[in-house]
Design goal:
Rna Polymerase Sigma Factor, Chain: A; two-stranded antiparallel sheet; homodimer; 2 domains
């Protein structure tokens, strides 16, 4: 969800906007009720769609990234998954037509709570309907139709994006050939719900949140900063921070002497990263997308988790977990793999021993690239 | 630090106050500078001091408990460590004279930021000097002198209290025969500092904190509630909550329909426990005691951690860790044991496989009592 270097790049020069057409009854119906009269998605793409339109890959993002997953000639700034996507890379844009959209409900160009409600002429704010992982998946489905793709070669997603990929496969059986789910979950568990609920409550407790009706001049920046820090703590792992920060202190001459001020480098690091984030991310988008993950539960797609997963009709799946992930623990990744296998899906499960916790997929090129590359190479050679 | 049942009992009928006398230069000098002209400690005791004054045990508490560690004829309400302390229990009050004080800096009767500064006639608030684990240990040392005890049979502490026990032993070599350290640390590590720093920042960000100058009518209750929830999340372990809460929902008829309201039982549980806490705990005490743990580092008692630990002169130590503790991980408990052994201290190390995380010592009678009982029984029989 968050790499301190480039996760929140919001690049515009390569980003296109597309308004979804051909929606049933002309509107976007939300999974939990309500609808949107119009949905625009901001997306970027890399590579060329083959004449038979059989080489498309959709990338679903975590909570916060934009559509700018990788650089391109139109925008050479590094994307949030730069190491993974490009010519000759694991997701090889010489071979695949790769699409990444800003999530529905997000704030980097796609329709979300910061968008104008065409009915009222004002921002949706907290009047935006509930956003679910299923809705994010559906918006991706209609986006791909707009781009001339009926059946995906693959859907790839990490964290919330992994849930979206699974939701896509369950909602549109047979429409994805290959599925890659990284550090995702079949359903949110109490600790994870608690950590996200607390982040949302911190934002909502900032008086500037004002029930979602803040203005550009008075956004709940304090709440966003605290929530973001809590997010960062949950995305990383203890041992990485031990080796990176240990008990290093901020130099004495940089201290103000104020009671309870930051004294340790780890405190400064969190402050720096929170400040970088809060000026580019819409608080209401944070609330909506955070909540969507709490609700996700494949059991709602059938009578049970097994039954939900049995909707899946993919040729093969790759499931990746990280040993030090406390938010979406490896145990949950093994569960995804086991549930898929129980429905006779062919599954490669890889558990990566990385110190980088939940954020490993954003950082750990060395471990992730070979695994994803091999899976996708095999998917076209077999 | 927190048992949902009884950790914050603030009982008065058995609590006594004692003003520390015989302080060097007539004042209490703080470890990080500054001093207090007067220190009063609120304490309770159980059992009788032997004629030779050789059976005294001091209990150091975690961040939040009061002196009411156990019931007594004077106050029959259960204490925060009720299962551990009493006639015939692991810390056997038929045999030992057991003392527990509210920590210096706390808010349950001992001198702290909520106390009146005799110099100004007003509450100290954020003008209270920095409190360290060393100061908490020292105040315990002077308390025991007041009670007629020169040399302790044992010091026992969990979490912050474990640090205090170690600090006591380092600061007063040879003054403790037996040491029990449970889920403590030789020094705070970055993840733990981050989690505590964030709690403090949440409190300080509540406008009602007002630089520590709040009144009884306008305490930073919102900040305290959010901080307390974050604390609770860090004290428990994922698997316990999975089995206790899973994805249970608050019944529909209890929902208001407000956007982003609590829907899961885990959210309700945190809210309930936070509300119970915030009306009895002083926010400034929370800030001071929380910070004291970040600073603790046995390396400051010598040239290195080894050198600091070499100050210890105890006959034997019991070190207990819990497999699922994310705040003071078992690895840190093994480190304490190893550092003690390196100074030729005899050490029993026990790692308890409990689902209760950092809070296990408050809950897990079955695992903890036999271990503590055996250690203390052996301490008098050998």
């Amino acid at each position: 969800m968050a790499d301190e270097e480039n996760a929140y790049t919001f690049a515009t020069t390569a980003t296109r906007n597309i308004t979804l057409r051909n929606l049933p009854d002309g509107e976007f119906k939300m999974w939990r009720g309500g609808s949107l009269p119009e949905v625009t998605l901001a997306y970027e793409s890399w590579g060329e769609l083959s004449p038979s339109a059989d080489n498309a890959i959709i990338i679903f993002t975590g909570l916060s990234p934009s559509a700018h997953a990788a650089s391109s000639p139109e925008d050479t700034s590094p994307g949030w998954w730069e190491y993974m996507i490009g010519p000759g890379k694991a997701i090889d844009t010489n071979r695949f037509f790769v699409v990444c959209a800003n999530s529905l409900g997000g704030c980097y160009g796609s329709t979300g709570p910061g968008s104008i409600n065409p009915v009222t002429g004002e921002n949706y704010g907290a009047e935006f309907p509930d956003v679910t992982v299923e809705d994010i998946a559906s918006s991706g489905y209609y986006l791909m139709r707009e781009l001339g793709v009926d059946k995906l070669h693959a859907a790839v997603g990490s964290s919330m994006g992994g849930m979206s990929s699974i939701a896509y496969a369950m909602q549109y059986p047979g429409e994805i050939r290959y599925l890659i789910s990284i550090s995702a979950a079949t359903q949110a568990l109490p600790l994870t719900i608690a950590l996200r609920s607390l982040q949302r409550e911190i934002i909502r407790s900032d008086p500037d949140w004002n029930q979602g009706r803040y203005t550009d001049d008075s956004r709940p920046l304090v709440g966003m900063s605290l929530a973001r820090k809590l997010g960062l703590v949950s995305y990383r792992a203890a041992d990485e921070w031990n080796s990176k920060f240990d008990r290093s202190r901020i130099p004495l001459e940089k201290l103000s002497g104020q009671r309870f001020e930051h004294e340790f480098e780890i405190e400064k690091y969190l402050e720096y990263n929170a400040q970088k984030f809060i000026h580019s991310f819409d608080p209401n988008s944070y609330l909506y997308l955070s909540r969507s993950m709490d609700w996700f539960d494949i059991a709602e797609h059938g009578d049970s988790m097994d039954d939900g997963m049995s909707k899946l009709q993919v040729a093969r799946a790759l499931v990746i977990g990280v040993t030090t992930d406390i938010l979406f623990p490896a145990r949950q990744q093994r569960e995804i793999a086991d549930l898929m296998r129980a429905t006779d899906t062919e599954v490669d499960y890889v558990e990566i021993d990385s110190v980088n916790g939940h954020d490993a997929f954003l950082i750990d090129d060395e471990h992730f690239s070979p695994v994803v590359k091999k899976f996708l190479d095999d998917s076209v050679c077999k």
